[in-house]
Amino acid sequence: MFFEPGHHLEQGLPHNPFKGCVLPRPIAWISSQSAAGVCNLAPFSYFNAFSDEPPIIGVGFSPDGREEGIKDSLRNILETGEFVFNLVSWEQRTAMNESSKPVPFDQDEFEAAGLEKLPSKLVTPPRVKGAPVHFECRLFKSLDLPANAAGQHSTMVLGEVVGIHIDESCLTDGLVDATKMRPLARLGYQDYAVINEVFQLVRPKAG
User: Fold this and answer.
1) What is the CA radius of gyration of the chain?
2) What total of structural domains would you count in the chain?
3) Could you list the residue range(s) of the whole structural domain that residue 163 is in?
4) What is the CATH number of the domain that holds 61?
5) Cβ–Cβ contacts within 10 Å for residue 18, how many?
6) pLDDT tens digit sequence for 173-191
7) What is the tens place of the pLDDT at every residue in 4-45?
């Protein structure tokens, strides 16, 4: 099967399979705070790490279907230059999903999702209590991606990680243990996965 983007219906595919083919995708549970002090929390699955020295993570924000045209998280990041990545674990799957619900810009989404905050050390936005990992980030660069047929564009945000918190109960012999964290991953459509098992492959050396 071959088709050009946007023409999946002609192949008998009821939904665009693009995101269902790029998997599993880590989830960026992003907490931010507006200049007026209102906290926002939302999950994004266009996310990954792009550098470790310095540590840089990237998050993709699709256009907001509401009248404002820009997601609250993106607005806060562009306005203040700060945000926090919170790792989503199996235990917080329901709260993460609840935080994806659109709410008014002036409503605290921690409260709407029934979550407690933890103070950050180097940035203003709070962290999600109970998340096994937090990255405190400062905005490095934002990039408007090509516009879609409706003239709307997604935005890619690159953030420099300036502080890292790790729950020590998720370490084994000083190494991060994914089976203790049980992080969630996004698949296509409404599907998710959880990491319960890992295996190792040692990278071969030249020659």
Assistant:
1) 18
2) 1
3) 24-194
4) 2.30.110.10
5) 11
6) 999 999 999 999 999 999 9
7) 999 999 999 999 999 999 999 999 999 999 999 999 999 999
Q: pTM for this one? A: 0.93
* CB distance 50 to 57 below 8 Å: yes
- Strand-pairing partners, residue 52, are 55
3 found inside a domain: no
Whether residue 180 is contained in a domain is answered as yes
**Within a domain: residue 76?**
yes
Q: Is 37 exposed, middle or buried (0-12, 13-18, 19+ CB in 10 A)?
A: exposed
Distance CA 186, CA 43 (A): 10
Beta bridge partners of residue 113, listed in sequence order: none
Q: What is the pLDDT of residues 155-175, one digit of tens each?
A: 999 999 999 999 999 999 999
Q: How far apart are CA 207 and CA 198, in angstroms?
A: 28
Q: Does residue 150 lie in a domain region? A: yes
Residue 1 near residue 12, CB atoms below 8 Å: no
Structure confidence at residue 65 (pLDDT): 62
- Give the C-alpha separation, 7 to 12, whole Å: 10
135, amino acid identity = F
pLDDT per residue over 88-130, tens digit each? 999 999 999 999 998 888 889 999 899 999 999 999 999 999 9
Residues 159-174 as b/e (b if ≥16 CB within 10 A, e otherwise) read bbbbeebebeebeeee
